[in-house]
Amino acid sequence: MNPKLSLAIGIICISFSPIFVKLVPLAALPVAFYRLAFAWIFLAPYCFWKKDLRIGSKSLIIAIVGGLVFGLDIAVWNISILKSTATISTLIANLAPLWVGLLTLLIFKKQPGISFWLGTLIAICGMVILVGIQNILHLQLTEGVLYAVASSFLYAFYILITKDVLTRIDTLTFMFYSMLSAALFLGTVCFFSDDVMTGFSIQTWSNLVILGLICQLLGWITINYAIHHLDPTQVSLTLLSQAVITALLAWLMLGEKIHITEILGGIIVLIGIAFTFVKRRLIS
Predict the structure, then answer these.
(1) Contact, 272 vs 240, CB < 8 A?
(2) Cβ-based neighbour number of residue 225 at 10 Å
(3) How many CB atoms lie within 10 A of CB 205?
(4) Residue 94 and residue 3: Cα distance in Å, rounded?
(5) Which residue, of 47, 106, 131, 268, has the greatest Cβ tally within 10 A?
(6) Where are the domains of the chain?
(7) Over its length of 284 residues, how does the chain's per-residue pLDDT go in tens digits?
């Protein structure tokens, strides 16, 4: 598949994640656990049948660590969604490009390029408009916003640490180990918590299965495939468009009101993404 098409499909799939988190009447951690557990349950039989699951020890460690980071990211993001709106939480969580660029520069000593920084600056301006300049200046940040910021950092860290391993091993093999480690981690946390884990309605179980199959399995198979073939900074910036799609879905499915500032902020975010791709083509 064309990597950009694969990325587009993945973004559409994961854009439904906050919607289902809101629709399911459960705490944040059980939703995160079942999302990953159901995805792994449906992936595992195919991997056992078709794939050679033997990989090097270094790749295995990275896949496991990546899974732990991803599982923690999903849990923190779910908390932010339940403490805020699906739109606000998703937009702020997608500050990941800023962290990707900074970590790439600080850790790997690799300059992302002027087009990345300009595109990110435009996108961040959209985020500021959405959250509210006065709220930022007076540090009136809600608990949901703070969780979303933490999620954005974990999101960026996941993209960076998995980039190299995805060039060495098969995408589905990587997901087999990473989702297994994430599910086991979240399952352990849920076991020692007081959250309800069983006795749900058929509708709730159905939503959890859809969350695992569409938002997690299909969404991240296609996104990981794109990470394998595209630059991680390019992928992370493009993922910002998820917030705009989620805003539209939240309006249609959850009845969340979209204010003019949110519309303006979303448009500016998209302009930042478009600017980055245009500049890349002009430079090349």
Answers:
(1) yes
(2) 20
(3) 13
(4) 20
(5) 131
(6) 3-283
(7) 788 899 899 999 999 988 998 889 899 999 999 999 999 999 999 998 887 788 888 889 999 999 999 999 999 989 998 887 777 777 777 777 677 777 777 776 666 677 777 877 887 787 777 666 665 555 456 778 788 888 888 988 888 888 778 778 888 888 899 999 999 999 999 988 888 888 899 999 999 999 999 999 999 889 878 877 777 667 766 777 787 788 888 888 888 776 777 778 777 876 776 676 554 444 44
**Both tokens of residue 156?**
């960026």
DSSP 71: H
Helical axes 143-163 vs 86-93, angle rounded to 10°: 40
* Cβ-Cβ contacts under 8 Å for 126 (sequence gap 6 or more): 264, 265, 266, 267, 268, 269, 271, 272
| Backbone φ/ψ region at 63: left (φ over 0), alpha (ψ -120 to 50), beta | alpha
Distance CA 226, CA 218 (A): 13
What's the pTM value of the predicted model, to 2 decimals?
0.80
Asked if 275 contacts 129 with a C-beta cutoff of 8 angstroms, the reply is no
